Amino acid sequence: VLVGARWMGGEIIRFLKREGIPFMVIDFDPEVVKKLADEKVHVLFGDISDPEILEFLDLKKAKLVISTADSHEDNLILAAELRRKNPQAALVIRASDASEAEGLYLAGVDYVILPDVVSGDFVTQILKNHWPNMDFFKDRSKKELSKLSHKHLNFN
Q1: In Å, how far are 70, 127, 135, 140, 141 from 131, measured between CA atoms?
Q2: pTM for the model
Q3: Of the candidates 82, 84, 87, 79, which has an alpha carbon nearest to the alpha carbon of residue 104?
Q4: What is the pLDDT of residues 42-65, one digit of tens each?
């Protein structure tokens, strides 16, 4: 189960599709839901804090739940519901800061994604792989702008 299909979620969707891993997406953006449905992705329109949505997801069968949602309260609700229904499922949730991350870990989340920390690790890895040759950064903006334009609501 993937909660949230934009930026970070889009990357996850592309990976799951490429690897042939079955998954379901929940998102509350009608444009995203329509695009995913058009691409034959199993998608549900709704908000993760809605008890009916949580019931419909049938979390008892999930092996992995990933939430890229930015609502800490919604993510805590999801964590509590998953731990109640399926304590053995792996749970990965995004947090905005260290305080949220700590609360999520205390709520039983297995791995918390802190985008600022992940970004720092990514840039450090780039430097490790390319220092002192800075060719990687030359004309990088063109490559990144191209990626951004192709990834916006493109889940292939």
Answers
A1: 34, 5, 9, 15, 19
A2: 0.85
A3: 79
A4: 999 999 989 999 888 889 999 999
